[in-house]
Amino acid sequence: MTQRLLIDTDPGVDDAVGLAALQVGRDGAHAHPRCRIEALTITAGNVGLGHTLANALKLCEIAGIDAPVFPGAPVPLVAIPEDAAYVHGRDGFGDPDLPPAARRPEA
Asked: If DSSP codes are grouped into helix, strand and coil, which group holds residue 83?
């Protein structure tokens, strides 16, 4: 039975590794046979929403995740936002200077 997933995330390096592991599977050749990512909703986290959304779109391109990507909350709902760029890099991905993704977020 396939587990359908809606993933709410703030993609930095840690979340990217988790998403890629779901998509790639053990042998590196195919998606995990029991999981299907139906959609991603993206929030601000260690860095702002502009960066986490760009990271999610790029990750989907690189890892072959064929799921819609929706922008979510730009700030935490109940806490004061904290920027952790000093740990995760300005973009939350360690500043690898990747070209922007060709795909765009859903409305």
From this structure: coil
